[in-house]
Amino acid sequence: MSEDSVKSEVEFVTFSAGDQSFSIEITQVREIRRWSPVTALPHAPNEVLGVMNLRGSVIPIYDLAARFGLGQTPENPRNVIVVAMHGGQTVGLLVEAVSEILSVSRDQIQETPDIRSEMARQSITGVIPIETGMTRVIDLGAVLHQAGRTLQ
Q1: How would you classify the pairing of strands 89-95 and 57-63?
Q2: Buried b vs exposed e over 123-140: b needs ≥16 C-beta within 10 Å?
Q3: Both ends of the chain: CA-CA distance in Å?
Q4: In which domain, by residue range, is 88 found?
């Protein structure tokens, strides 16, 4: 394998939220944890479930399905928290299940179609064809910001 082909390969962690497939680059994922109760915060946006203590650090937990307008994630013992890092901040994403680690070349990532939704265009940086359809590549920074303000 040439050095150029190694550089063009990228790995994603894929997971389901709102019965849809999403993915983030594996370099952003710190760990995957079982769901455990969180401490709710008053006046938090609907998609912010609360905060969790992660080895002495308090991190916000987002319901990814709710964040994307796909409804609240139903309680299920299979639910997991994807602990991810963005811009030096650690956050947790509640998802229904982690599916797989996907290794693709950058040229397999297709542009997000123009669907006249600025929020969708900012939050989803591309789509990757997979056996069961498509997985959407999430821009974690855009997911954590709404209308120019951070949701934390």
Answers
A1: parallel
A2: bbbbbbebeeeebbbbbb
A3: 43
A4: 3-147
Plot region of 140 (φ>0 → left; ψ -120 to 50 → alpha; else → beta): alpha
**Is 26 a domain residue?**
yes
- Angle among Cα 89, 93, 97 to the nearest 5 degrees reads 145
Predicted confidence (pLDDT) at residue 116 exceeds the cutoff of 90: no
Write the CATH number for 46: 2.40.50.180
Contacts of 23 (CB under 8 A, 6+ apart): 12, 13, 14, 15, 102, 128, 135, 136, 137, 138
94 closest CA partner among 65, 69, 123, 120? 65
Query: Which of 100, 79, 67 is CA-nearest to residue 34?
Result: 79
Instruction: Give yes or no for a contact between 27 and 103, defined as CB atoms under 8 angstroms apart.
Output: no
Q: What is the pTM of this model?
A: 0.84
pLDDT value at 123 more than 70: yes
State the total domains in the chain: 1
Is there a domain that residue 90 lies in?
A: yes
pLDDT tens digits, one per residue of 10-29? 999 999 999 999 999 999 99
Phi first, then psi, for residue 118 (nearest 5°) are: -60, -40
